[in-house]
Design goal:
The chain is about 10% helix and about 45% strand. It has 3 helices and 26 strands.
Length: about 350
Amino acid sequence: MRLVRFLLRYYPPGIILEYEQGSQTRTRTIDLLDLTERSNIYELVAQLQANEPLITPSKTDQVAKLLLKLQSKLSSPDKHHYNHYKTIRTHVLPVTNVSFNKSGSKFVSGSYDRTCKIWDTHKGEELHVLDGHKNVVYAVAFNNPFADKIVTGSFDRTAKLWSTETGKCYHTFKGHTAEIVCVTFNSSSTLVATGSMDTMGKIWDVETGVEMASLQGHNAEIISIQFNSLGDKVVTGSFDNTVAIWDVETGHKISSLIGHRGEISNAVISYDDTLIGTGSMDKSCKVWIADQGNVWRHCTDTLTRFWTSHSTTGASSYSLYQLTLQREYLTLAPTNVWLRLLDTNER
């Protein structure tokens, strides 16, 4: 094995090792979830070297500098002010979704005009048109942190894998029998997962384009899909009011989270894989906790926090549409334009 480079991940803190093994380029992620402002950097480097043969003594100073950057980021005040930056006329028909690369220097847009476009964020310039779908392009995603590939999901029942740099289509994933509405990569960018209105999820190999597993068990449309950080499980949210956890290798359902009284609008996993956040058309969100033994329990055992949000303008005015789950906080973006931040340690 030969180390090629380090990639820095600010949140959650960690570093990614890119290395060559034979003729293939691979990656390995080192999570630094316990890094704090008081951590002794060189002690931490020594611990990493003891467990990771790719981090040789010649790389000590380089790794220490990376950890210091992470430490500095943790200690900097998190006070951001957001202003309107730029308006870009992207498509001739409505835009369905956008996705940024890790640095924010590029983003991809999907549209009812059946195309995707890659944009330079700062210049507002169109870099590539990803043309090939035969119906609405509804779902788009970068393979962050690498950002050299894009996956798109379409109402034409296919997903496509593209090169960010050239706009070339590597693979067309065929197998769904209805519209594809959610797509995602695993953290190592070796697998793609797709969710469809045909009630199924599918897992695909990025290198070969081959279907690796079919996730069958929901009774209604799948509208949310996400890998956990280890990449051995997938979580899906469905209009059948449930969330399912699947084994990536076998495609078997491990468990279902049952408790919502309306369609699931989103389901997300915390980076340390201990919590799942769910939002629903029943105007509630739930946070579920996973067992220490990596076995996902049923909701009657695992429901730890529950909030119900009521609109001041009527009980049916919004649902919880987008969620972002950190270990301490759950961010909600309901469709009535308010944004709420909830502390997962309090009711």
